[in-house]
Amino acid sequence: MDEVLVWSVRGVEILCGLSLCLQTLEFLCLQPAMSENGVWGFDVQGDDLAHASPWLRRIFTFLARPNVYRWHLVSRLLAGLLLMIVGASAALMVFLVLSTVQILIRWRGAFNGGSDFMTLVVLIGLLIGALGGMVGYSDLAWRAGLLFIAIHAASSYFISGGVKLLNPEWRSGEALGLFLDSGIYGPLAKQSVFWSRPIAILCSWAFILWEIAVPLAFAHPLFAIVYCGMGLVFHFLVFWYFGLNRFFFAWLATYPAMIFMAVQLN
Predict the structure, then answer these.
(1) Fewest C-beta in 10 Å: which of 74, 190, 236, 256?
(2) d(CA 118, CA 251)
(3) 34: closest CA among 25, 23, 43, 22?
(4) What is the Cα–Cα distance from 242 to 116, expressed in whole angstroms?
(5) Spatial distance between the Cα atoms of 198 and 195, rounded to a whole number of angstroms
(6) What is the pTM of this model?
(7) How far is CA 32 from the centre of its chain?
(8) 256 neighbors 224 (Cβ within 8 angstroms)
(9) Helix/strand/coil (H, E, C) string of the chain?
């Protein structure tokens, strides 16, 4: 593999591993709430599997046992550390993909929305590369895995910007104030500059144009670096203001793949 490919893969592995470790530590802290007497006990959430086959329900019931679930999370934490230290292997990635799917089902499809699915996208991309290496197509498979991640990440920005563009409340700036009003540091003070219509319109259109301009990031590697730098600031602000910590680390793990895609296209 060429040097750019190697460093791109390692970047995704390290950042994805970091994201997984932080997510898993969060789940470990939530264990009391997921016990039999907790607000997220499997006796309640497990009803979603009422129409599943008996053997499948037995599997998920077993995995939801406190001790089993605890060992699952500890194993996932170790797997995330291994991903950061030694990199992706086929066995490691199969475990992490299945572990993530199991947790998603345990939380009725998602614990934290888009960040869960972007984490799964990154894991699948790494799985593609690791499996390809087993059958003698390492270089091609890793390129395909990185492109898989980059395309999904770029699509997430473009679709988000497109939805805002089609929404009159975002175009008028009205949605921004309402959006910020619901943050963990909200509601916005009445004298906040974000209630100012010109400021709200300016900020709203800055978000819209930045998101739908994502194809330009692939016009040159430098553009990709600048775009990802702006994304880093954007997600950190969302992290700080709304507490969406998982989004910051989930999308950060995709940036080496996006920069790699820009290199490949130029």
Answers:
(1) 190
(2) 7
(3) 43
(4) 17
(5) 9
(6) 0.90
(7) 25
(8) no
(9) CCHHHHHHHHHHHHHHHHHHHHHHHHHHHCHHHHCCCCCCCHHHHHHHHCCCCHHHHHHHHHHCCHHHHHHHHHHHHHHHHHHHHCCCCHHHHHHHHHHHHHHHHHCCCCCCCHHHHHHHHHHHHHHHHHHHHHCCCHHHHHHHHHHHHHHHHHHHHHHHHHHHHHCHHHHCCHHHHHHHHCCCCCCCCCCCHHHCHHHHHHHHHHHHHHHHCHHHHHHCHHHHHHHHHHHHHHHHHHHHHHCCHHHHHHHHCCHHHHHHHHHHCC
Q: Which residues touch 46 (CB under 8 Å, ≥6 apart)?
A: 57, 60, 61, 64
Q: Mind listing the pLDDT tens digit for each residue in 4-57? A: 899 999 999 999 999 999 999 999 898 887 777 777 777 776 677 777 788 887
Q: What is the mean pLDDT of residues 230-248?
A: 86
Angle between helices 3-29 and 114-134 (to 10 degrees): 130
**Alpha carbon 27 to chain centroid, angstroms:** 16
Distance between CA 52 and CA 30 in Å, rounded? 26
Contact 16, 24 (CB under 8 A): no
Query: Is 12 exposed, middle or buried, given 0-12, 13-18 or 19+ CB atoms closer than 10 A?
Result: buried
Rounded Cα distance between 16 and 122, Å, is 7
Give the integer Cα–Cα distance in Å for 124 and 152: 11
Residues 36 and 61: beta-carbon distance below 8 Å: no
- What pLDDT, on the 0 to 100 scale, is given for residue 243? 77
